[in-house]
Amino acid sequence: MSSGIRASVCMATYRGSAYVAEQIESIVAQLGPDDELVIVDDCSPDDTVDVIVATIDRLGESRVFLTRTDENVGYVRAFEAAIRRSRGRYVFLSDQDDVWTPGRHEAMIAGLARSLVVAGNHSILGRAGARLWYPPLRSRVSRHHLANLFAIMIGYRPYFGCAMGFRREAIEGGILPIPPYVTESHDVWIAITGNMRRSIRHLDEVVVERRLHDTNQTPLGIRGLGTIVRARWMFVRLIAEAYRRTVAARAAILAARRR
Q: Among 83, 105, 119, 134, whose CB has the most other CB atoms within 10 angstroms?
């Protein structure tokens, strides 16, 4: 990138004043001098923006950039706006209320050395050793792309945006624009894109501690049958769209080589 930015961390915030300061601190502690944290606040009605500004001032940070949407657009579109504002060669997503584990940043950058997308595991903050209902990601199945797509459809491959990242070349005509019918599970879309392009790397490590509480923006708990069916139909549409974009990208590369 001509901007000289190595890595961009993209965070979307909404009603996050209770925990966002701790998350910002855990992130900037790992950023290098050529990294940035891009925050898009989704028109929070509380004091989230004030807390962010106060945290930036207290830390004396020049690597954190905050913007605010004019109206509430939902967390998927807020993340999309943050990705568009990012400038780094590597782009990572961050929720507003989690805590990064030590060494996460460099481990994920290393994971992108030969892959367009990287995905790590998470634990539950304050519940060390707690068992999750789905099996963790394993590096040995990174290249099992069809199996990964099938696992997404079944619902047992734990792709969480707060533990994911991608290289810049995966963005235009790939990850972005996020299809307009996606109002949640943007992380699944990113995972589908990486698997469809046969370029995703799983990390065995836990890279983030997720904080679970009643105001999480991502849904918690077991969903109803109707919700599950609608989600699976959306995943089918996303796989078809990722395939279309992958074919178009390959065609564009071939056309450029013929010139």
A: 119
- pLDDT tens digit string along 165-211? 999 999 988 999 999 999 999 999 999 999 999 999 999 999 999 99
3-class SS of residue 64: strand
Instruction: Write out the DSSP string of 154-183.
Output: HT-S---GGGEEEEGGGTBTTTBSPPTT-S
* Cα end-to-end span (Å), the chain: 24
Amino acid at 51: V
How far is Cα 240 from Cα 105, in angstroms, rounded to an integer? 32
Proportion of the chain above pLDDT 90, given as a percent: 82
With both helix axes pointing from N to C terminus, report the angle between 20-28 and 48-59 in degrees, rounded to the nearest 10.
30
Sequence length of the chain is 259
Alpha-carbon gap, residue 220 to 215, rounded angstroms: 9
The DSSP bridge pattern shows strands 64-68 and 35-41 to be: parallel
